[in-house]
Amino acid sequence: MSDRIAVATRIDNRHPAAPRREAPRTPWAIRGELILNCNCTVFCPCVVSLGQHPPTEGVCQAWAGVRIDEGHYGDEDLSGLNVGLLLEIPGRMARGNWTAAAFIDDRASHAGFEALVRIFSGQAKGTTGLFSVLVSEFLGAERAPVIFETEGKSRRLMVGKKIQGAVEPVQGADPEREIVVSNTQYWMGPDITVATATQGRVRAFGRVWDFDGRSAEICQIDWHGP
Q: Mind listing the pLDDT tens digit for each residue in 7-19?
């Protein structure tokens, strides 16, 4: 019998400092809108503190929805697809140790599904590359009917019975103008519309959350990589 252990990949015996050639990464881009609802009792402090200030409840629990108006991963068209996200952060956002899960639009092709998993897990680098650093536990990605609807100023995300959420902008002194935190360095985008959740229900991966009336955000996204 051989005393060698079979390995799936070739062992790299080169010195750690030796230069290595990385495989070329696939260019990608997504333009559209993101909505997010978390358990903060007032507007999420992460937007202006860039994750240095703790959530108002000590931990962050959130769901998010992404509507892709235009998008591609290499030659694969992602336009018209939606994605739902579940996020759980044990303290300050910038300290990492996130738990995450993704719900990918069941209209996506096999290649589109794989592309969106790479993008939203951080493997595709670029704007969402921080996920590969901050997320320590990825619960998985699954196909689901992900519906993102806009009616007037309200946005609604439905992922079967797993996520049922709706957000709308907080009314300012001028009801025709949204309250916007602009020119930020927030990872999602520089301009964040202050919103609140009219519905925020999650029943997935053992989580049972109800965040009606809690903090919400609306953001126009223009992400790309690598």
A: 444 555 666 566 6
- CA–CA gap between residue 142 and residue 76 (Å, rounded): 19
Between the alpha carbon of residue 148 and those of residues 19, 41, 66, 163, the distances in Å are: 45, 24, 8, 11
CA pair distance 184, 64, nearest whole angstrom: 19
pLDDT at 6: 46
DSSP 211: -
- What is the sign, positive or negative, of the torsion defined by CA atoms of 221, 77, 99, 126? negative
Structure tokens at 70: 């235009």
* Residues 107-130: tens digit of each pLDDT: 999 999 999 999 999 999 999 999
Residue 106 · residue 144 · CB < 8 Å: yes
